[in-house]
Amino acid sequence: MTLDEIALLLKNKNWDAYIVPHNNTFIGQDILPEENKIMELCGFSGSAGTLLIMQNKTFLLVDGRYNIQAQKETSASSVEVVCTSESIGSWLQQNIKYPLTIAYNPWHHSISEVDFWHRTLTQHNFVEDNEQILGSSLSSKVTDIFEHCIEFSGISSDEKLSYLTQYIQENHLDAFLLCEPDSVSWLLNLRSDILPYTPIFRAFALIDKDGNISLYQQDFNKLEDELSALKNKIIGLSPNHTPQKINSTIKQCKILKSNHHNPVEKWKSIKNPIEIDGFKKSHIRDGVALCKFLYWLDNNWQNQTELSVVEKLYELRSQEQNFYKNSFATIAGFGSNGAIVHYQPNEQTNLSLSEGNILLLDSGAQYFDGTTDVTRTIAIGNVTSQKIKDSFTQVLKAHIAAANTIFPPQTSGSIIDGIARSQLWQFGKDYAHGTGHGVGHFLNVHEGPFSLSQRRNNIALEVGQITSIEPGYYVEDEYGIRIENLYYISAMNNPEYPKPMLCFVPLTLVPIDKRLINKYLLNKQEICWLDQYHKFVFEQLIDSLPAEIQPWFAEACSPL
């Protein structure tokens, strides 16, 4: 179906507009390429965005990560790209003052989102498209479902389920409906191969107060039928992640709805000791693979392209124990392509590496015992540009400022985000993405409920959570810089502190490219942090690296 065909359908149905999110029935989760209606309709391949299709105009709303990419991938004659951090509802509120009849697929939008529309956009009429005029949003791909063994997960599914049944009973509920597949996967210690990078088991789960479970993967008619048997019962659910279609069914069936933050989301964000140990071990193996890669790149860059770099890194990672697959599509942007924050090379955009510029390489892996995500900005040959070196060092200062922060319990991620950005603000610079995100254990590489970002999020950082720290700086058509490590949050053991404090402990074990550092922009504390980090990387990896790499590695980790 084309944008013109949808516009004609809108006229026939007397609808003024149609909202197409980057979603399917599993709201907020990764989707398959064949499920990506936005890419099908306008060519934009980014992992976040919303189309607003009108009878005579189409808008594509993207955030700052995707502005350049969206402009390049869409036709300006048919789609107007809007760079905004606002939701579609907030954008409509500010920009479309005249009344519209707006249709949407109620399976693709949460109860909270639709409720916001009805409460704040009273001039518009929102209509559920129960016919799903854009067609099915779920792939029919055959899925292999498997258990995530307790040697990796650390806690049995029975014990996890007891947490939820206790929660149900304490809150006087009859059942809880989980619509987040990553929560269902964690709760039941189940995974699948449905997605290319994220091993989640895609299903909804209805759990009653006695611990009985019903699972729904694609049989959502069965879910509606079973909900109808719960008349006058109290069901807990998360309105932020439950499709509006289920809310409509609950009303029709006269079920009593109780809104809750999904408790599983927080439980799985705090990693148990087995999971933490797995993260540490998987990062050692990941560090070995990346150091082998960096050594290879230093000696072979003259004949390489972005795509060959992606291929070589996958080859080396896949040789490591417990490797399952990449945790996301590798971002390998050389020179000007590095300025596209989430750029992924293809045959049409693939650049050859050449001396004097930088390669932004953001990659990660799913290991059965942990998930990795690391970004390094790498000098290709002799980089002489002072502008690049100064920008790299300023990003490094932002990274160190956040990573070296000691903070009290109940601190939100937005505080850490501001600490990082303040280093770049001193130079009049900033970046249009968050400073960090939570990471799942053999699950989503981006995980809530907290984040290190400017967006309002009052979820406190807690001991046992895993987060990235990844400030950056990007100059369109020239270069991009990002430095990303994963850290786990730990309690400080300092008896001199009058109050408890928390800190970030590094997991990522990969040298930071000292060839790109202007050391005169670093203070003594920052140099000390970098030297201690490299000493830690060296001690963790040296015995696992081949002899021929060790001299290179020793130099890469030597004091600044």
Helices and strands, with pairings:
Layout: H1 3-13, E1 17-21, H2 37-42, E2 50-54, E3 58-62, H3 67-73, E4 80-83, H4 88-95, E5 101-104, H5 111-120, E6 125-128, E7 145-147, H6 150-153, H7 157-170, E8 175-178, H8 181-188, E9 190-192, E10 204-208, E11 213-216, H9 220-227, E12 234-237, H10 244-252, E13 256-259, H11 263-269, H12 273-300, H13 306-317, E14 323-326, E15 331-334, E16 358-363, E17 365-367, E18 370-371, E19 374-379, H14 386-403, H15 413-425, E20 436-438, E21 447-452, E22 466-469, E23 472-475, E24 479-482, E25 485-491, E26 502-506, H16 524-541, H17 550-556
Parallel strand pairs: 1-5, 3-4, 5-6, 8-12, 12-13
Antiparallel strand pairs: 1-2, 2-3, 7-9, 8-10, 10-11, 14-17, 15-16, 16-19, 17-18, 20-21, 22-25, 23-24, 25-26
Helix pairs in contact: 5-10, 12-13, 14-15
Measured between the Cα atoms of the first and last residue, the distance is 57 Å
| CATH-derived topology of the largest domain | Creatine Amidinohydrolase
Number of domains: 3
Count of helix runs: 17
What is the CATH top level name of the largest domain? Alpha Beta
The biggest sheet, with number of strands, parallel, antiparallel or mixed sense and barrel status, is: 6 strands, mixed
Percent of residues in beta strands:
15-25%
Task: Give the CATH H-level superfamily of the largest domain.
Answer: Creatinase/methionine aminopeptidase superfamily
> How does the helix and strand content classify structurally?
alpha+beta
Averaging pLDDT over every residue, what do you get? 95
